[in-house]
Write a structure and sequence with these properties.
alpha+beta, globular, 5 strands, 215 residues, 6 helices
């Protein structure tokens, strides 16, 4: 698969020549606490914003598009760092995952976003989306916001036991995202990869009404 990773958290688009070939994007973002900025396998963050996490090391930013999920790392240290989070790491239940999907569907319909693949895992999300007037970074932010609103409306937000002083709930999703640009030859493989994600984890195949085949 000929993949090009976008600049992390910059919102930058690829060159005009490359962009002419882009028809879709594979974006991945985590639930709160899924992947810490100083995970020894690398992260999409270039800083650690809280001392209680910085104690476990500085940010470990990587810029290549391959997955580091199965890389060697200090499992005990990672769990210890997670225990220092301000809130418990979010793990979506099946009911919450369906609410997240309804939030995605609402945004996709309102913004005319084409979604070709979606897997809502307990602690992260995979999406294959069509090229859009907004950059994939911005789309990821909007999708997270719409899913969060849906969770709150249905009174099943995973961190609703920890309201802030303003009465709002903490963010259910982590900051940042991975994004990979896809040319026409890449899309089917990316969609199949996303489809297989739940199956590899022993879950059922996910079928969402807002996911459509690429025309």
């Amino acid at each position: 698969m000929s993949l090009t990773l976008a600049a992390t958290r910059s919102g930058a688009r690829v060159s005009r020549e490359r962009h002419a070939m882009i028809v879709a994007h594979h974006i991945i973002f985590g639930a709160y606490g899924f992947w810490l900025p100083n995970d020894s396998r690398g992260s999409w963050s270039d800083f650690v914003g809280a001392w209680h996490l910085y104690r476990y090391g500085p940010a470990t930013q990587v810029t290549d598009p391959r997955s580091h999920a199965w890389g060697e790392h200090n499992h005990a240290l990672r769990l210890e760092a997670k225990s220092a989070l301000k809130y418990p790491p979010v793990t979506f239940t099946g009911v919450q995952a369906r609410a997240v999907a309804r939030g995605f569907a609402t945004y996709a319909g309102r913004s005319k976003l084409d979604v070709y693949g979606c897997a809502i895992m307990p602690d992260h999300v995979h999406l294959v989306i069509g090229d859009h007037r907004l950059a994939p970074d911005q789309i990821a932010i909007q999708l997270k916001a719409s899913a969060t609103r849906q969770l709150a409306q249905e009174k099943i937000h995973p961190l609703q036991a920890f309201p802030t002083a303003s009465g709002r709930f903490p963010k259910a999703f982590a900051r940042g995202q991975w994004k990979v640009y896809l040319d026409p030859d890449d899309v089917d493989r990316a969609v199949e990869y996303v489809r297989q994600n739940p199956l590899k984890e022993g879950m059922k195949e996910q079928v969402w009404k807002f996911v459509k085949p690429m025309r």
